[in-house]
Amino acid sequence: MVKIKNKEMKQLSKQDLENKLLELRKEFFSLRGQTSSGAPIKSPGLIKTTRRNIARIHTFLKLKKEETNK
């Protein structure tokens, strides 16, 4: 998974962001399982990127929630 760009995030709906978040969480869980079992990962930076993408989605979900409350 590559870094999700902010332009792309702004265009996604709340439901799309939640689906993307679920997908990333599953991927992150899988990557953590691979590292704990000692299996090699395709790219060691993938864990970091996935974790940051999850945080980025949380931020955009919070912004969308604040927009609806105004």
What does this structure look like?
By secondary structure, the chain is an all-alpha fold. The chain has a domain at 15-29 and 41-70. It is built from 3 helices and no strands. Helix 2 runs antiparallel to helix 3. The model has no long low-confidence stretch (mean pLDDT 90).
Instruction: Please provide the count of β strands.
Output: 0
Give the termini separation.
Answer: 34 Å
Number of H- or I-type helical stretches: 3
> What average pLDDT do the residues reach?
90
DSSP strand (E) fraction? Answer: under 5%
Describe the main β-sheet briefly.
none
Q: What string gives the helices and strands in order?
A: HHH
**Rg, Å, rounded:** 14 Å
Please write out the topology.
Layout: H1 6-11, H2 14-37, H3 45-69
